């Protein structure tokens, strides 16, 4: 219970701290919340964080971890911090802004939808979902539902929500930052699949043969 409470506090406090980045980028609380799209973006961010608190996702190294893949977390951390501040700052100063207020709302919708897609697999996997590339105690494969079509629905949600976030600020630089997240994400996927193949052998190989990584018919 104590560790769950600590994780909840860490998640909510971290989300509030992250929201401070675009607020700073936009020059303060009042300017940031002057547009309804940014208000809803902030509300969606906090709502997703509150829902995440009730999941069993963790950062446990479990029974076996690929520690060599931890560099990906550092890469996501740096790019995530930049994506938190730079697109909002670009929006404020009008640097390389993609045209149209409609794009803001498309971005908000993508962020919220991608965030839901990111979280649903966390609830499906429960304690098997870790922020590290690791095999958890009692680890079993899930091959039905979302996982019956794509093997990494949470990562697809991550990409969609990341793109939605920067589009909510109409930031061309933000789109580039999102694209820069793809190489470490692919590295993460390959590390996870290698780990699962070593753990489950032919069972995982057969599952991998009939599914797509993230986008059916594409990847």
UniProtKB/TrEMBL annotation:
Entry annotated with the keyword Signal: no
Molecular function (GO) terms for this protein are: protein C-terminal S-isoprenylcysteine carboxyl O-methyltransferase activity
Instruction: Please classify the protein's predominant subcellular localization into one broad category.
Output: membrane
List residues traversing the bilayer.
Answer: 37-59, 71-90, 102-125, 132-150, 156-182
Q: Matching Pfam families, A to Z?
A: ICMT
User: What Gene Ontology cellular-component terms does the record carry?
Assistant: membrane
InterPro entries with a match to the protein in the record: ICMT_MeTrfase, Metal_cation-efflux_comp
Keyword line: Membrane, Transmembrane, Transmembrane helix
Q: Where in the cell is it found?
A: Membrane
Topology relative to the membrane, per the entry? Answer: Multi-pass membrane protein
> PANTHER family, alphabetically?
BLL3993 PROTEIN (PTHR43847:SF1)
**The protein's name in its UniProt record:** Isoprenylcysteine carboxylmethyltransferase family protein
């Amino acid at each position: 219970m104590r560790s769950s409470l600590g994780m909840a506090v860490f998640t909510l406090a971290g989300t509030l701290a992250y929201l401070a980045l675009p607020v700073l980028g936009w020059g303060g609380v009042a300017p940031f919340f002057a547009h309804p799209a940014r208000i809803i973006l902030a509300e969606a961010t906090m709502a997703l964080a509150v829902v995440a608190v009730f999941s069993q996702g963790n950062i446990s190294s479990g029974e076996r971890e690929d520690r060599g893949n931890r560099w990906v977390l550092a890469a996501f951390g740096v790019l995530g911090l930049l994506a938190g501040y730079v697109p909002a700052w670009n929006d404020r100063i009008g640097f390389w802004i993609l045209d149209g207020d409609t794009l803001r709302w498309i971005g908000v919708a993508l962020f919220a939808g991608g965030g839901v897609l990111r979280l649903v697999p966390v609830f499906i996997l429960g304690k098997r979902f870790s922020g590290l590339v690791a095999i958890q105690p009692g680890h079993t494969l899930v091959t039905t539902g979302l996982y019956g079509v794509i093997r990494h629905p949470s990562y697809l949600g991550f990409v969609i929500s990341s793109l939605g976030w920067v589009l909510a600020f109409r930031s061309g630089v933000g789109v580039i930052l999102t694209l820069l997240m793809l190489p470490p994400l692919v590295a993460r996927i390959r590390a996870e699949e290698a780990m699962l193949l070593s753990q489950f052998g032919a069972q995982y190989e057969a599952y991998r043969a009939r599914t797509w990584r993230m986008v059916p018919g594409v990847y």
